[in-house]
Automatic annotation (TrEMBL):
Chief localization: membrane
EC number(s) on file: 2.7.13.3
Upper taxonomic lineage: Bacteria, Bacillati, Cyanobacteriota, Cyanophyceae, Nostocales
Domain Response regulatory span(s) in chain numbering: 658-787
Pfam families (alphabetical): GAF, HATPase_c, HisKA, PAS_9, Response_reg
Name the UniProt record assigns to this protein: Circadian input-output histidine kinase CikA
Family: In the N-terminal section; belongs to the phytochrome family.
Keyword DNA damage belongs to the record: no
């Protein structure tokens, strides 16, 4: 500053003042530099905001652009972006820009567990401005593994946040001397982190859009190429879109169906509207139903219709998605199968009826043949010479063989038809073995074979149908004896964890292993030459295996040709039963063993005096029922005494007993009448129920033999029921006669098994029941039971 001054003498002088403005200039320069930095930062941020790269969703390209712009703006040596991995255990460098080399790199990582202070600071602070990074408490953990390795002196880090989560960090690094980061630079670093967030969002949005487009393309491909008809229907039932498959199913083009009511093509059923309401209300997720559709040419098309809802963004139902699968061929097949099933059932019924009829027709003459043969064997109508006895014995044995064949065929047919019913009980193994061994002992002795039974001490009980288990064991033992010329036959019983095994082994002719596959086929004998040497139908093993399967078990075989065979019958601890039968079976399993044994013994003693004889003669079993007026007879008489009694021609008692025979089969009536009269009984025979009441009143019979298959208006079942309804006839002895294959009337339905016939007859009021063909031993046992 200068001034013009006039001194007192009038002489002019110039005054100049000097001041130090260095600090002022420094402030001006700092302000200018700050303004330039802010202007530069603002320009960079504007450029990034307008960048199409960030908007396109290419994250790698966006990060390269961001790191380069940030490095140039703040004049940092290196700028990098680090993102957390999926489990948030470390950060990985996804892009690093080096201003010295002008290159981008990636791949480094830092474990969060190794740098707890640094990562805690990232989560808690808006930015980390570490001027002296190696000595800053927040970053000094990075000194040795990272900072010193790259000569980094200062760090400016800004965390990256996305949706409220810390997802990474942007690092600005200065190499060499320590750098003081400004507040403007810290703010700029935060803005750069925000742009990284935008880039990540754009990338995720692009990925979502691409996934959506891919999904839409896949859906459209499925929609167009699916073999199942697909229709999009609005909430007013108008068709919005259909695929080619649905057009083909209905016979219309897409244009024809568009805008039409979908329900116009469906044959609706009562209750459909309620189902749609449930779907719309959310009660169910999807509807599935079989409905008929109307084809363009007027024919019906059966389809499996599946309907679900498509909701709008606000959750309101917007469309129905209908999936229609053409099942017309399946329906036609079902109809054909139904018709085939009906035909098969009709055939099965016809087969059963034929077998029942044939059985009846065969058993009727067999009854006469075997019964009359027995009369001749007993020489009740005169003596026979040796040749005559030989012929009679041949006739009787042939009848027995034919009867066994009929029984096997009927049993096999019943099992194959699934009509065989098992009556399960807890059986004493020792008694089973004693029975079957005693039954086949005579045959073994005839061939001089050693017959052995070995029973495991733990094998005390088994579960099964007593009659069928005996039948299976007898089949196996009989076969073993038949095909064993010399040596021994052994029955071995063992307890195994899952059940019990009965093993029948022999030293017979053996079986070629190549023939095992035919062994259990019906009507098969493996070597045709054996047909002449060993009689048999080939049904025994087939029936045995099927009965074993019915018990839930099996029959297996081991054999060496020329050395012998071993057949093993396995019965499980718990046969495969259901419902009431399962509960009954469980009751058997948990039955007290002592109680069970006592019950078994009681039952066997009660029927021993009858069953012992009938079992030994291979006749159908018969059963007796003791009424209150009579107790059980003592089983003190021996088999020998019974046989002596059979040959006696004297009346059974000192007073002749009257027997009323109600039988309409002439041959059976003649057999029974002649035999009973021959041993001293007075017999009256009627063939219908018409004279029954008059004969009962006049004759007052001591015993009535009543055929349940009696022809006429009143059959045997009705007659038996009426007898027991009459108070005056409660003590009348009535023994019924029935066929194994008879069918009861509708008033008294029974199972057509011997057990079913017996149970029903005893329930109605019979004292005992005989099954055809009737043997002399059976009749004599009945007479001994009641008349002594």
């Amino acid at each position: 500053m200068q001034e013009n001054l006039t001194p007192d003498q009038g002489q002019k002088m110039q005054l100049v003042s000097l001041g130090d403005i260095t600090e002022h200039k420094r402030v001006e320069e700092a302000l200018q530099k700050r303004e330039n930095c802010l202007r530069k930062q603002s320009k960079t941020l504007v450029q990034l905001a307008k960048s199409k790269t960030l908007q396109q969703g290419d994250l790698s390209a966006a990060l390269r652009e961001i790191t380069e712009a940030a490095a140039q703006t703040v004049e940092a040596d290196r700028v990098s972006v680090w993102l957390y991995n999926s489990d948030h255990s470390k950060v990985e460098c996804v892009d690093l820009y080096d201003t010295i080399t002008k290159r981008h790199s990636c791949g480094m990582s830092l474990l969060k567990a190794n740098f707890p202070a640094y990562f805690q600071a990232l989560e808690e602070q808006r930015s980390i401005a570490a001027h002296d990074a190696c000595n800053d408490d927040r970053t000094q953990e990075l000194s040795e593994p990272y900072l010193s390795a790259f000569g980094i002196a200062s760090l400016l880090n800004a965390p990256i946040w996305l949706g409220g989560r810390l997802v990474g960090v942007v690092c600005h690094e200065h190499i060499g001397r320590i750098r003081q980061w400004t507040l403007e630079e810290e703010n700029f670093a935060g803005s750069i982190a925000d742009f990284v967030t935008l880039a990540i969002e754009a990338s995720e949005r692009k990925a979502a859009q691409e996934a959506l487009q891919q999904s839409e393309a896949e859906f459209r491909a499925i929609f167009e190429r699916s073999s199942v008809g697909i229709g999009l229907v609005d909430m007013k039932a108008r068709i919005v879109d259909v695929n080619p498959a649905l057009c083909q199913i209905l016979g219309y083009s897409r244009e024809d169906l568009s805008g039409k009511r979908f329900t116009d093509y469906i044959f609706k059923q009562e209750g459909d509207l309620e189902l749609y309401k449930q779907l719309i209300s959310g009660t169910c997720d999807r509807l599935e139903m079989e409905r008929r559709f109307l084809h363009k040419d007027g024919k019906f098309v059966w389809a499996l219709l599946s309907i679900s809802l498509i909701s709008s963004q606000n959750g309101e139902p917007q469309y129905f998605l209908a999936m229609i699968e053409d099942i017309t061929k399946r329906k036609q097949t079902e109809l054909e199968l139904c018709e085939s099933k009906e035909a098969a059932e009709a055939g099965s019924r016809a087969k059963s009826e034929f077998l029942a009829t044939m059985s009846h027709e065969l058993r009727t003459p067999l009854n006469a043949i075997m019964g009359l043969s027995q009369l001749l064997q007993q020489e009740m109508v005169g003596s026979l010479n040796d040749k005559q006895k030989e012929y009679v014995n041949c006739i009787y044995s042939s009848g027995e063989h034919l009867l066994a064949l009929i029984n096997d065929i009927l049993d096999l047919s019943k099992v194959e038809a699934g009509k065989e019913e098992l009556f399960l009980s807890k059986l004493l193994v020792q008694e089973l073995c004693d029975y079957v061994i005693s039954t086949v002992r005579d045959r073994a002795e005839e061939k001089k074979l050693q017959l052995i039974a070995e029973i495991d001490e733990q094998a005390d009980f088994c579960i099964g149908d007593e009659r069928r288990v005996k039948q299976m064991l007898l089949n196996l033992l009989t076969n073993a004896i038949k095909f064993t010329p010399a040596g021994k036959v052994c029955l071995e019983v063992k307890k195994v964890p899952q059940g019990i095994t009965f093993t029948v082994s022999d030293t017979g002719i053996g079986i070629d292993p190549g023939q095992f596959k035919f062994l259990f086929e019906p009507f098969q004998q493996l070597d045709s030459r054996l047909n002449r040497q060993y009689e048999g139908t080939g049904l025994g093993l087939a029936l045995t295996r099927k009965l074993a399967h019915l018990h839930g078990g099996d029959v297996t075989v081991e054999s060496v040709l020329g050395k012998g065979s071993k057949f093993q019958l396995f019965l499980p601890n718990q046969p495969p039963v259901e419902g009431d039968a399962r509960r009954f079976c469980e009751e058997i399993f948990y039955l007290d063993e002592e109680q069970s044994t006592q019950q078994q013994i009681t039952v066997k003693k009660r029927s021993l005096n009858i069953n012992e004889v009938s079992n030994n003669t291979n006749y159908s079993l018969f059963y007796e029922k003791s009424w209150q007026s009579r107790g059980d007879k003592d089983d003190s008489s021996s088999t020998c005494s019974r046989r002596t009694q059979l040959t006696s021609r004297q009346p059974a008692t000192s007073v002749t007993k009257n027997i009323l025979l109600v039988q309409d089969e002439e041959k059976t009536a003649a057999l029974l009448r002649d035999y009973l009269q021959a041993i001293g009984y007075h017999v009256e025979q009627i063939s219908t129920s018409n004279d029954f009441w008059e004969r009962v009143q006049n004759q007052q019979p001591d015993l009535v033999l009543l055929d349940l298959e009696l022809a006429g208006e009143t059959n045997g079942w009705d007659l038996l029921s009426k007898v027991r309804q009459n108070p005056d006839l409660q003590d009348l002895l009535v023994v019924t006669i029935a066929s194994n294959t008879m069918v009861a009337n509708s008033d008294y339905p029974v199972h057509t098994t011997p057990d079913g016939l017996r149970d029903r007859a005893l329930q109605i009021g019979a004292n005992a029941c005989l099954c055809k063909p009737i043997g002399i031993v059976q009749i004599e046992s009945i007479l001994m039971q009641y008349f002594g």
